[in-house]
């Protein structure tokens, strides 16, 4: 059986059996949730870090319960990779809930000063009350939480102006708890990213996987890229055509995947398409913003 035929058979099996069902919850994730709960009383404000391309999918529903009535600021990180019009809809969505959502681009350092200002703003009443009681001024204590690989370590490094936290382009690089002193008399309690115990909505799980919040090593990368191509064919067909110099898209995602492979010359010595190379290329180029500024969801997509 030719490799291309095998890919199509595998894809048909996937459609029937949902072979890409994602259900990932390592033990250290539970420990981190417990860590957040235990240390929440030590902080003045919770900074919730989301991926600007998938603000809903990258939101951990546990954080609402854990944070309770604590003042909260939302960061929409990797905003440079998101569609600006859709990003503005998310900013308005949070504003309507009384929460300030701040777009941040850590590569250029944009939005970081706004984050510091907002942390001061939401804790002003508490800090003023402490002064009135004659208490000595102390740093505003911040906890930053979010799912893995959304950029917490990079943001911390930018805020401190030095390499104070380990960073890496894979989930779960930050392993422990550490207090980090920031400019402007702020202190930040960093915690590793956390995910919920199971993915009840596989579309959310796929969005996280597309944006590398779930390790590629535990996934079928060929099928993951196929699903991403299907998503882009639906929401950003022109950007997909432009990036891969296609006059038209295929009638199906696998046909479009074939067209990308032939256009890029990803053909083996046996004249068969190298699907893993196609898959890796499409996933990486999406994640690096080379296909374009793309947001995978808008507030209207939230299922009530």
What does this structure look like?
With 304 residues, this protein is an alpha/beta fold. 43% of the residues lie in helices and 11% in strands. It contains twelve helices and six strands. It has helices spanning 3-17, 27-39, 61-67, 84-95, 112-122, 124-132, 152-160, 202-210, 221-235, 237-243, 253-264, 275-287, and strands spanning 45-51, 72-77, 101-104, 140-146, 178-182, 186-190. A six-stranded mixed β-sheet has the order 3-2-1-4-6-5. The termini are far apart. 37% of the residues are buried.
The largest sheet, given as strand count, sense and whether it forms a barrel, is: 6 strands, mixed
Order of helices and strands: HHEHEHEHHEHEEHHHHH
Q: What number is the mean pLDDT?
A: 84
Radius of gyration: 21 Å
Q: What is the 3D form? A: elongated
Low-confidence runs of at least 5 consecutive residues? 6-17, 164-175
Distance between the termini: 45 Å
Helix content: 40-55%
Query: Main sheet: which strands, in order across?
Result: 3-2-1-4-6-5
What structural class do the secondary elements suggest? alpha/beta
How much strand content do the residues show?
A: 5-15%
Query: How many beta-strand elements?
Result: 6
Number of helices: 12
